[in-house]
Design goal:
- By secondary structure, the protein is of the alpha/beta class.
- The chain has a domain of 192 residues: Uracil-DNA glycosylase-like domain (Uracil-DNA Glycosylase, subunit E, 3-Layer(aba) Sandwich), CATH 3.40.470.10.
- Helices cover 37% and strands 8% of the residues.
- It contains 12 helices and 5 strands.
- A 5-stranded mixed β-sheet has the order 2-1-3-5-4, sandwiched between helices.
- Strand 4 and strand 5 form a beta hairpin.
- The longest helix is centred in the last third of the chain and has 18 residues.
- It is globular, with a radius of gyration of 19 Å.
- The two termini are 28 Å apart.
- The structure holds uracil (URA).
- Uracil binds next to loops.
- The site of uracil has 11 residues, from loops.
Length: 305
């Protein structure tokens, strides 16, 4: 990659080094050829089983098979899924969400009451970006500003994220002349702010997962950047720390996925920015088809943290 003076300046301002690509691997292929998840992520994502490959773009009906009320219903809440009818309702909700198109998905998120967060949020935070983007960034949950403004990552962490994306000429802008390769769709694992920014609870992650899953299936990104432990929990069904999972390419519904630190963590631990930058560069290599199945990441030999 040729770095413009502006990009180099931006990287220096962030304390990051310009990425000079390692020798490209000869059999660089499509993202599909990238290495499968290592054995560290123990089980296949439930989402892998629930929906077909993300790259199969279906022509979804508006809302098929279930009413919008059923989608929003607390009866389909994971909290209530201990008995069989509730589990069936949960499965039906998941399948119904998997058939929604963009407008219907947005409506379903707005009307959702499947967990208690709908009672305390100002508004749901659906996601932002162009729906045809090669990149998808997945964060944790809306914070105070996001809850007020209805857009993910608009606070300090979001500014850092935008800077890092801009250094790779990527943008969250939904409008504009950028080709899909430069576009990012940003979404959170939870669409509603947890009170006082507390950690997402397992039932909340479970209730919101079908929305994120559908967003990914509709965007069909070439790379997913999972930021922080809750994005990892939701997408990889893994409780491993970020430091153990980063530095290699995982998969979610067939889409290559790279794990990295959450920008809020980077604000508290700026020394880790270099690793996060390495992660972005790894993701860029995947998108650009420069990584063979067995290629280690640029810093794979460093110890995991
Ligand atoms: N942190 C997140 O994970 N998401 C946001 O939208 C804001 C902060």
């Amino acid at each position: 990659m040729i770095w413009s003076a502006r990009q180099q300046q931006m990287l220096r301002a962030m304390g990051l080094r310009p990425w000079s690509r390692a020798a490209p691997v000869p059999q660089a292929g499509e993202p599909e050829k990238v290495a499968a998840p290592s054995t560290e992520s123990t089980s296949a994502p439930a989402s892998d089983r629930a929906v077909g490959p993300a790259r199969t773009r279906a022509a979804p009906p508006h809302v098929a098979g279930a009413s919008a009320a059923a989608l929003a219903s607390p009866a389909a809440s994971p909290v209530a899924a201990a008995d069989e009818p509730a589990a069936a309702a949960l499965a039906e909700r998941r399948q119904a969400i998997a058939r929604l198109d963009w407008p219907a998905l947005r409506e379903a998120v707005a009307a959702c009451s499947a967990c208690t967060l709908h009672g305390t949020r100002t508004q749901p935070v659906f996601g932002v970006g162009h729906t045809e983007a090669h990149w998808m960034v997945v964060g944790e949950a809306p914070g105070e500003q996001e809850d007020l403004q209805g857009e993910p990552f608009v606070g300090a962490a979001g500014q850092l994220l935008d800077q890092m994306l801009a250094a790779l000429s990527l943008t969250r802008a939904a409008e504009g002349p950028q080709p899909p390769a430069q576009r990012v769709f940003i979404a959170n694992t939870l669409k509603c702010r947890p009170p006082r920014n507390r950690n997402p609870q397992p039932d909340e992650l479970l209730a919101c997962e079908p929305f994120l899953q559908r967003q990914i299936a509709l965007v069909q990104p070439r790379i997913i950047l999972a930021m922080g432990r809750f994005a990892i929990q939701s997408l990889l069904q893994s409780n491993e720390p970020v430091g153990k999972l980063r530095g290699r390419v995982h998969r979610y519904q067939g889409v290559p996925l790279v794990v990295t630190y959450h920008p809020a963590y980077l604000l508290r631990s700026p020394a880790e920015k270099a690793r996060a930058w390495d992660d972005l560069c790894l993701a860029a290599q995947v998108v650009e088809g420069e990584l063979s199945p067995s290629s280690p990441s640029p810093d794979a030999s460093r110890s995991a943290r």
